[in-house]
Amino acid sequence: MPNLLHRPFGTRGEVHRITPESAGWRYVGFSLHRLRAGDSAEEATGDREAILVIIEGKARITGGGEDFGLMGDRMDVFEKSPPHAAYIPRDADWSAVAETDCTLAVCTAPAAAGCDYRAQRLGPDGITLTERGRGTNTRHINNIAMEDRPVADRLLVTEVFTPAGHWSSFPSHRHDEDDFPRITYLEETYYHRLNPASGFGVQRVYTDDRQLDETMAVHDHDVVCVPRGHHPCGAPYGFEMYYLNVMAGPLRKWRFVPAPEAQWIMERDA
Question: How far apart are CA 234 and CA 251, in angstroms?
Answer without folding.
Answer: 29
